[in-house]
Design a protein that fits this description.
Blueprint lengths: L35 H12 L3 E2 H4 L5 H6 L4 E4 L25 H12 L3 E6 L10 H14 L4 E5 L9 H7 L4 E3 L9 H4 L5 H14 L4 E8 L5 H13 L4 E6 L16 H13 L4 E4 L9 H16 L4
Parallel strand pairs: 2-3, 3-4, 4-5, 5-6, 6-7, 7-8
Antiparallel strand pairs: 1-2
Helix pairs in contact: 4-5, 5-6, 6-8
């Protein structure tokens, strides 16, 4: 659910110089959503007073995903305590925590009859546990209301929140996703409130806590990174035993956000995907429109099959 029109969505960016938004190449243009199922999904989310990252982050795939009843639910409010220069989620003073949100999320999952659901959130540096218990309660509520649904969480980094990772992992999501977003050299510009090696350590800790949980991470390209830096990120993720990597094109939400350095071609994405598989990832999704939860349900089925094949010695 978007902020009221009279509120400044990104107050920390208001005095920054504009970065003109470049015209998108043909391979990443999408049609405006118009389907009946899209409208039904939107109305259900609003009726249950739930937010989705699809809307809040202005995802280009919202028309396709919502037309298939795929939505990524965003918990812990709509206002983030960080100020990443790539992100369109509102920043500022965070919302009060809604104690009934986990049950409403579970109700939506049941009404949409989802086989797979992705739960994400804003960063909540103001909370003692960063929102970890709220994630765990949401996972447990979905297990109760929709026991056949597989659950993927896309969490913040829980920076300086001791024990938070273990709380979420103990609730046993099927997939624990946390995005590195970019290469370490660009963290100061792109993700100034985060720490690259803290995010790597999070993914490593999840796998050490419960090796049966699939781990996943994603990065954007087109922010000014070099290919060699992207390949190093792949190596770092494999050292943390991450199973699934997503790579997508960064798209600039407003003139106040980080500029697009360049539009990466489909052939370059195909090359990155080949490199990633060669490094040992079970699953890789690399394309201009790839996002963390894009085709997440279908990808989970393939991810599980890939693990079974590797364990059986087939792959």
């Amino acid at each position: 659910m978007a902020q009221p029109a009279d509120q400044v969505r990104h107050p920390e960016k208001a005095n920054k110089p504009d970065n003109p938004i470049q015209r998108k190449p043909a391979w990443i243009r999408v049609k405006a959503p118009t389907s009946r199922v899209y409208a039904e999904t939107r109305d259900l989310m609003r009726g249950l007073n739930l937010r989705t990252v699809c809307e809040e982050a202005a995802c280009p795939n919202i028309g396709e995903c919502w037309s298939q009843k795929h939505a990524t639910v965003m918990i812990l409010g709509s206002v983030c305590t960080r100020a990443c220069t790539f992100c369109n989620v509102a920043t500022g003073r965070p919302d009060l925590l809604d104690p009934h949100e986990p049950e409403r999320v579970a109700e939506a999952v049941g009404k949409l009859a989802l086989k797979h659901v992705v739960i994400t959130s804003v960063d909540r540096d103001d909370l003692p546990d960063g929102g970890a218990d709220h994630f765990a309660r949401t996972i447990r509520a979905i297990r109760l209301f929709a026991p056949g649904t597989t659950i993927e969480v896309l969490t913040p980094d829980f920076l300086r929140k001791e024990g938070a990772i273990e709380v979420v992992a103990a609730a046993r999501p099927d997939v624990f996703n946390h995005n590195l977003e970019t290469v370490p050299r660009l963290y100061g510009e792109v993700r100034p409130g985060a720490r690259y090696f803290n995010s790597l350590r999070l993914l490593d800790q999840v796998k050490r806590h419960d090796p049966s949980i699939f781990t996943k991470s994603g990065i954007m390209v087109g922010l000014g990174e070099a290919k060699e830096e992207v390949l190093q990120v792949m190596d770092d993720l494999r050292a943390a035993d991450v199973d699934f990597l997503t790579i997508g094109q960064y798209l600039q939400p407003t003139p106040k956000h980080h500029r697009v350095d360049r539009f990466v071609t489909p052939d370059e994405f195909a090359s990155l995907q080949t490199h990633a598989y060669a490094k040992g990832f079970l699953m890789v999704s690399a394309s201009p429109l790839t996002r963390s939860s894009y085709h997440a349900g279908d990808d989970f089925v393939r991810l599980r099959a890939a693990r079974e094949a590797r364990l059986s010695g087939v792959a």
